[in-house]
Amino acid sequence: MIAHLIRSLLQGILVILAVGLIAFSMFRFVGDPIASLAGQEATDADRAELSERLGLNDPFPIQFARFLGHAAHGDFGISYRQARPVADLLTERLPATIELAVLSALFAFIVGVTLGVYAAINRRGLVANSVMVLSLIGVSLPTFLIGIGLIYMFAVELRWLPSFGRGDVVRIGWWTTGLLTETGRKSLVLPVLTLGFFQLTLIMRLVRAEMLETMRTDYVRFARARGIPERRIQFRHALRNTMVPVVTIVGLQLGSVIAFAIVTETVFQWPGLGALFVNAVQFVDIPVMAAYLMFVAFVFATVNFITDFIYVLIDPRLRM
Amino acid sequence: MTTCGKLAIALLAATALATTAADARSLKWARSGDALTLDPHAQNEGPTHALGHHIYEPLIHRDSQGKEVAALAVSWKVTDDANVWEFKLRPNVKFHNGNAFNADDVVFSLQRAMQPTSDMKGLLTSVDSITKVDDLTVQIKTKGPNPLLPNNLTDLFIMDKEWAEANNAQKPQDYKNKEENYSVRNANGTGPFQLVSREPDVKTVMKRNDSYWGIGTFPMEITELTYIPIKADATRLAALLSGEVDFVQDVPVQDIERLKAQQSLRVNIGPENRTIFFGMDVGSADLKTDNVDGKNPFADKRVRQAMNMALNRQAIQRVAMRGQSVPTGAMAAPFVHGWTKELDAIPAGDANTAKKLLADAGYPNGFNITLHCPNDRYVNDEAICQAAVGMWGQIGVKVNLVSQSKAIHFPLIQKNPPETEFYLLGWGVPTFDSEYTFSFLYHTRDAKYGSWNALRYSNAEVDKLIEALSSETDKAKRDAIIAKLWGLFRDETLYLPVHHQTLAYAMKTGFDIPVDVSNQPKLKYVSFKTN
Fold first, then answer.
1. Which residue has the higher pLDDT, B5 or B416?
2. Distance from CA of A293 to the nearest CA of B (A)
3. What is the mean pLDDT of residues A266-289?
4. Average pLDDT over residues A170-186
5. What is the largest CA-CA distance in chain B?
6. What secondary structure letter does DSSP report for B289?
7. Rounded to whole angstroms, how far apart are CA atoms B468 and B471?
């Protein structure tokens, strides 16, 4: 078991380094930061001097090595766009993204599992079937359309909820949260629904399929033969076995929700990491892009590691 | 006067004050991007200056029509020495922290703007030295006479010397430094609004500066001003429709009609000081992206004229811009000194004449060429290119369109030698004088001039005239040179102008904010409408 965990830890580190290297080799295709950094009146000489000062003339392996060297000391450089240390920007933006991602994952998980189990048990019911049809829409509609649709309904027409931003946030140490104020909670509703909707339908369909599969297995049949009540079979025995693949998916999805809340954050002007990254790409803000991509790789590696660990807990066969 | 009378007056005054307080009105202002920094000299960029003008002030600023208005300077003139400008400063002005404004602050700020890490230094290259004469007089000595110096000062903000020194912000941010410069998120200006809080990319809150020198001169009716960047077009407009913001800049042209239909909203439309045009490589011996061997078709004036004639500006205005542009044949907007009605006239000719010109030049079947176009910089930039490509197709010139982000597009033009042979560009003129356009777009590319000239155009005689413009103090002579140059360039058909860009501002009907020709609305001019 220890060997299993160490192996996935090493894999994680390798993934982070590989992502960093690939990212750096790609930056020059995003554009030239000098175009956004130097004003209209800059002469050719000014541009060349700025490029030299930022170390942009060095080949990318050297730039990458320099980045790693500084990053090892916790220094991610200064953002070209905002003229502030990248580490500060990331810590400032992280709470907004985590809050959004965790809440929408929770929402998706709870509602998804409930609906999935319901749809599996009442396979032929009208409600279950309509939910399944609706979930197809959730899987196929792009996130930004759902977001804009929700904004027009709840912000413009009904005026119940705000259309953008986080509302008022409360600062606790370096963390900021919108959960403690009314405007903060209201601001969370639409982005959480938008971001969670796809996950919800995915989890629901997965739980339903897995549950139907499990209900057909031999041990369930034996349990029925032994006269164990149906509810107990469904929730104590079948659901537990259903959860193994579901946890994997939810775990991996949480990683991608944190990393790629980009669309939702852009639609709702949510001041998280995704919005920071989009702005960085347009400005060719290399220090921010590099740090963000490394962060995403880190999140995925960590989530993978934790998922592996939870497998071991859920599935006794892996404890050998 | 009796005590009773005095008391009555005091009471009256108190009531008046209370009414003013009750009139406290806030304005929430949204646009697509945030200011990059509050540091007045670190970024020479539109949205950054637009916010800056509310907190800081230059010596001279421009109103919404582009007219120069005295700000921190009350008067300015050339001294007996033609190389020296003298500025009389406004007395009794205080910075937001209470410090007095004087000549030391002006000398300090302009010198700060000339530091290597400043992005504003390009506007002050003609400056030799800045000296304080007395507390309210400053002299600027230039390297040779510079009649345009005041035009260059309209975005150069004045900081408080003591404040900058106390906070170690004597220089703009150096990206090599590991620490954040204090002036990036803090500000102490003399402007009509005072910074309350700033969260980059979220919001910037300002309150009215109640000791502002311009109270009584300007309406100054907004007591709290909140600047909110909202990137997504749909969300920004939704925020206006739902009443969460009061004023939206950067309104997409396709939404103007829908917003106008709303009872509660007003849309103001006006021209911007920015011209959109195509540029071509006229100087290279051979082009890489064409299918003509050993020749450069653009080097032939007849080809350029044909391309110019084939460009149906009215159709572009109708199809790509939904009517929101001013089609033109001129390379500068009407606000720019040197513009004339004759220059603005749209070139005559039609597809048949164009085809004939092409045939005369030796291309009866046209040729192929690649066009580079940005897709996120100007209003509907990609749509303009697509429309134009179709028009050139009609005369046999098959254009291969490459549309990309501005971060990739602009370096193609800026690199020396340029990496594009045919491109779209938009040009704003911050000095409001033709000399600016000539220096950057037409002068031979060298260390000082022509940094946006991707034409490979080089004409020694033209260069001499352009250089003379920056120091010619005789107005009649100067205007004659400008007219001569414009005439020459129009005849050569070096660029193909398309239109002057227009801007749309949307707001609640309680406001009437005019479109600012520099796209930097100055909200101290705004008064509330009572209706």
1. B416
2. 19
3. 93
4. 92
5. 99
6. S
7. 6
CA atoms within 13 A on the CB side of A118: 15
Q: What is the Cα–Cα distance from B267 to A231, expressed in whole angstroms?
A: 62
What is the helix (H) or strand (E) element at residue A211, kind and residue range?
Answer: helix A182-215
Q: Is the separation of the CB atoms in B374 and B471 below 8 Å?
A: no
Task: Indicate the pairing of strand B84-89 with strand B137-142.
Answer: antiparallel
Nearest-CA distance A76 → chain B (Å): 9
| Spatial distance between the Cα atoms of A177 and B507, rounded to a whole number of angstroms | 31
Task: With beta carbons under 8 A apart, name residues in chain B contacting A82.
Answer: 36-37, 184, 200-201
Angle between helices A239-259 and A86-121 (to 10 degrees): 150
Give the closest residue to A135 by CA, choosing from A117, A121, A150, A115. A115
Asked if A159 lies within 8 A of B242 by C-beta distance, the reply is: yes
CA distances from B373 to B197, B268, B274, B403, B426 (A): 39, 28, 17, 5, 11
Burial B187-200 (b: 16+ CB within 10 A, else e): bbbbbbbbbeebeb
User: Which residue of chain A comes nearest to B201, CA vs CA?
Assistant: A271
Q: What is the pLDDT of residues B176-226, one digit of tens each?
A: 777 789 999 999 999 999 999 999 999 999 999 999 999 999 999 999 999
Dihedral (Cα; B337, B342, B346, B352), 10-degree rounding: -140
- Using the beta-carbon criterion (under 8 Å), do A38 and B119 form an inter-chain contact? yes
Q: How far apart are CA A199 and CA A57, in angstroms?
A: 43
Chain B interface includes A39 (CB < 8 A)? yes
Contact A115/A128 with Cβ under 8 angstroms? Answer: no
Angle at CA of residue B508, ends B507 and B511, nearest 5°: 80
Q: Supply the DSSP symbol for B99.
A: P
| 0.90 surpassed by complex ipTM | no
Does the distance separating the beta carbons of A43 and B451 come in below 8 Å? yes
- What contacts A86, CB < 8 A, 6 or more positions away? A76, A77, A78, A79, A287, A288, A291
Say if the Cβ atoms of B180 and A78 lie within 8 Å. yes
Q: Please judge whether A83 and B45 are an interchain contact, meaning their C-beta atoms are less than 8 angstroms apart.
A: no
Provide CB contacts within 8 A for A137, sequence distance 6+. none
Best of A92, A146, A166, A269 to disrupt the B interface by mutation (most B CBs within 10 Å)?
A269
Q: Determine how many CB atoms are found less than 10 A away from the CB of residue A228.
A: 14
Residue B486: both structure tokens together: 């414009």
